[in-house]
Design a protein that fits this description.
Pathway: Isoprenoid biosynthesis; isopentenyl diphosphate biosynthesis via mevalonate pathway; isopentenyl diphosphate from (R)-mevalonate: step 1/3. The chain folds into 2 domains: about 5-160, 2-Layer Sandwich (Ribosomal Protein S5, domain 2); about 170-305, Alpha-Beta Plaits (2-Layer Sandwich), CATH 3.30.70.890. The protein contains 9 helices and 11 strands. The protein is an alpha+beta fold. It has helices at about 65-80, 100-115, 125-140, 145-150, 185-200, 200-225, 225-245, 250-260, 285-295, and strands at about 5-15, 25-40, 50, 55, 85-90, 155-160, 165, 175-180, 265-270, 275-280, 300-305. The model has no long low-confidence stretch (mean pLDDT about 95). Strands 1, 2, 3, 4, 5, 6 and 7 form a 7-stranded mixed beta sheet that branches. A 4-stranded antiparallel beta sheet has the order 9-10-8-11. Helix 2 (about 100-115) packs across helix 3. The protein binds (3R)-3-hydroxy-3-methyl-5-(phosphonooxy)pentanoic acid. (3R)-3-hydroxy-3-methyl-5-(phosphonooxy)pentanoic acid binds near residues 18, 20, 99, 145 and 270.
Length: about 300
C-alpha cells in the first residue's frame, strides 16, 4: 500500500511503579484519552521521520529519538522491507515525560503502521519485542509494563517473569489524572531507586515489598468494588514512594489538594519527580468537580476517566 496508519493509546500505572522494576507486581491501566497516530507513506528517498520534535532522515534523529530509529530499522528487517522510500509521520496527543508512556506509544503506533504498510498481520509478541527495543534505549532497564499496557484494552496485573494477567474490575471507579507541568525522567528516577536498593538493601527492599503487598490488596479492592479501600491503598503507596524520593513538591501539592477536596486517595503515577498524579474520586459527579478544581489550582492538564465493570 502507499499509506498505512497505526494507532496506540497511552497508559497509566495505578499502583506498583518502581517496585515492579525490582520484582514486585504492579497494576496498570490503558488510558485511551490520549494517544499516538503514525502514518507510514511511500515517499521516494531515504527513510524519514516527521514529528513535533524532529523532521528529517532517520539516521540523524536527536539522541532522545535514537531508540525509535533502532526500532524502525528492526521492524523493517522483520518485515523484509527496504530501508528507503518511506516517510513516517507521528502525531501524538500524549505529553512526553509525564509517566503516560509516550515513548512506548510512539513505538507501538509506528510498528503497527509499518505492519499495515507491509500488509502483514502481526502477533502481539512481535509488537512487544520490537517496542521493547525502543524502550531499552529510552529507559535503560524498563520492566516492560508500558508496552504491555499500551497493547491491552483491560487493566493489567504485571510482575516480571510471570505470565501477565488481566484484571476485571467489579465496580465503577472514577479517576482523575492531573499533570504537574514538570517533565520527569524515567531513566533517572529508576536509577535513583536502584542506587537506594544498593546502599540500604534491607531497608529499601522492605519498602518495595510493602508496595508489593499494597498492590495485592489493591487488586482485591478492584475485584470487590471496594472504592474506599482502593483510595486508602493509593495513599499508602504514595507514602512509600515519597520515602523512596520519587515524589516532588509539584506532585505533592496536587496530591494533597485532591485529598483535601474529597478524593478517596491520590498518588503519583509513573516514574515520578515530575509528571502526573492519579486520584480516585467518590463518583462521577465528584470526578467532574475535582477536575475543575484541580484546573483552577494550577494543574497543567486534567483528565477524568472511569474504569467500569464489564457488563457484556
Ligand atoms: O514511564 P513511566 O514514567 O510510566 O515509568 C514507568 C514505571 C517504572 O516502574 C518507574 C519503570 C518501569 O519500567 O516499570
Amino acid at each position: 500500500v502507499q499509506t498505512a496508519i497505526g494507532v496506540a493509546h497511552s497508559k497509566l500505572i495505578l499502583i506498583g511503579e518502581h517496585a515492579v522494576v525490582h520484582g514486585q507486581p504492579a497494576i496498570s491501566l490503558p488510558f485511551p484519552l490520549v494517544g499516538v497516530e503514525a502514518i507510514a507513506e511511500y515517499v521516494p528517498g531515504s527513510v524519514k521521520i516527521d514529528s513535533t520534535f524532529y523532521h528529517g532522515p532517520i539516521e540523524s534523529v536527536p539522541e532522545s529519538l535514537s531508540g525509535l530509529t533502532t526500532c524502525v530499522e528492526a521492524t523493517l528487517d522483520h518485515l523484509d522491507l527496504p530501508h528507503q522510500d518511506l516517510l513516517i509521520r507521528i502525531k501524538s496527543s500524549i505529553p512526553p515525560g509525564k509517566g503516560l508512556g509516550s515513548s512506548a506509544s510512539v513505538a507501538v503506533a509506528v510498528i503497527r503502521s509499518l505492519f499495515a504498510y507491509a500488509e502483514e498481520d502481526y502477533l502481539i509478541e512481535d509488537i512487544l519485542h520490537l517496542a521493547d527495543i525502543s524502550e531499552r534505549h529510552a529507559h535503560g532497564e524498563p520492566s516492560g509494563i508500558d508496552t504491555l499496557t499500551i497493547t491491552s484494552e483491560l487493566p493489567i496485573w504485571y510482575q516480571k517473569e510471570e505470565p501477565t494477567d488481566l484484571i476485571e474490575p467489579q465496580g465503577d471507579f472514577h479517576f482523575i489524572v492531573a499533570d504537574s507541568g514538570r517533565m520527569g525522567d524515567t531513566r533517572l528516577a529508576v536509577e535513583s531507586v536502584t542506587k537506594l536498593v544498593k546502599s540500604a538493601p534491607r531497608r529499601i527492599q522492605a519498602k518495595l515489598e510493602r508496595i508489593g503487598e499494597i498492590t495485592h490488596r489493591a487488586r482485591t479492592a478492584l475485584e470487590t468494588a471496594s472504592k474506599h479501600l482502593l483510595g486508602q491503598l493509593l495513599n499508602e503507596a504514595q507514602k512509600e514512594l515519597e520515602a523512596l524520593g520519587v515524589s516532588d513538591a509539584g506532585l505533592n501539592r496536587l496530591i494533597y489538594f485532591a485529598r483535601q477536596e474529597g478524593a478517596l486517595g491520590a498518588k503519583l503515577t509513573g516514574a515520578g519527580n515530575g509528571g502526573c498524579v492519579i486520584a480516585l474520586a467518590q463518583n462521577e459527579m465528584h470526578s467532574k468537580q475535582l477536575c475543575e478544581k484541580l484546573k483552577k489550582f494550577g494543574a497543567h492538564a486534567v483528565w477524568s476517566f472511569a474504569l467500569k465493570k464489564n457488563t457484556d
